[in-house]
């Protein structure tokens, strides 16, 4: 489910409890919706995620690539300790921006992204 906050140009996706091979189609559909929304930031709420396998990681990396190509910041929030360990072991903690909660996103980050996007569009 994609929820948008147009004021800050932020779109949020609440993840499913399992990010595995079956969830990759669902996540790719969510990313397609996000790409159409033209937001500056995508926030994936990882709090519901209880299981993450290699296919789930690959789908998140694909979402990260899609965000990069769309000039959008992808942020993961609400990552549990067990899921964080998987990111750490795969060294993906260095690839993804991870915050504790969506509320922990600094307003300055969303404002900075808006400025950068406007500058890129003007160039």
What would your notes on this structure say?
With 123 residues, the protein is of the alpha/beta class. It has one domain: Transcription Regulator spoIIAA, CATH 3.30.750. It is built from four helices and seven strands. The protein has helices at 23-37, 54-69, 81-89, 107-122; strands at 2-5, 10-14, 18-19, 41-45, 51-52, 73-77, 97-99. The strands form two sheets. Strands 1-2-4-6-7 form a five-stranded mixed β-sheet, covered by helices on one side. Strands 3-5 form a two-stranded parallel sheet. β1 (2-5) and β2 form a beta hairpin. α1 (23-37) packs parallel to α2 (54-69). The protein is globular. The relative contact order is 0.17. The model is unreliable at 110-123 (pLDDT under 50).
**Which spans of ≥5 residues are poorly predicted at pLDDT below 50?**
110-123
> How many extended strands?
7
The CATH first-level class comes to: Alpha Beta
Which sheet architecture does the biggest sheet show? 5 strands, mixed
Globally, the shape reads globular
Strand neighbour order, sheet with most strands = 1-2-4-6-7
Number of domains: 1
- DSSP strand content: 15-25%
CATH architecture: 2-Layer Sandwich
Distance between the termini: 34 Å
Alpha-carbon Rg, integer? 14 Å
Class per helix and strand makeup: alpha/beta
Discrete helix count: 4
Order of helices and strands: EEEHEEHEHEH
CATH topology tier name: Transcription Regulator spoIIAA
CATH homologous superfamily classification: STAS domain
Mean pLDDT: 83
**What share of residues is helical?**
40-55%
């Amino acid at each position: 489910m994609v929820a948008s906050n147009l004021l800050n140009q932020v779109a949020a996706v609440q993840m499913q409890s399992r990010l595995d091979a079956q969830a990759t189609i669902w996540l790719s559909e969510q990313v397609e919706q996000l790409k159409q929304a033209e937001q500056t930031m995508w926030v994936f709420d990882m709090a519901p995620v209880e299981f993450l396998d290699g296919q789930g990681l690959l789908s998140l990396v694909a979402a990260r690539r899609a965000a990069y190509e769309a000039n959008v910041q992808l942020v993961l929030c609400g990552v549990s300790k067990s899921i964080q360990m998987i990111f750490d072991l795969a060294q993906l903690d260095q690839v993804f921006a991870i915050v504790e909660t969506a509320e922990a996103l600094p307003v300055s980050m969303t404002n900075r992204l808006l400025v950068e996007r406007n500058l890129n569009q003007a160039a």
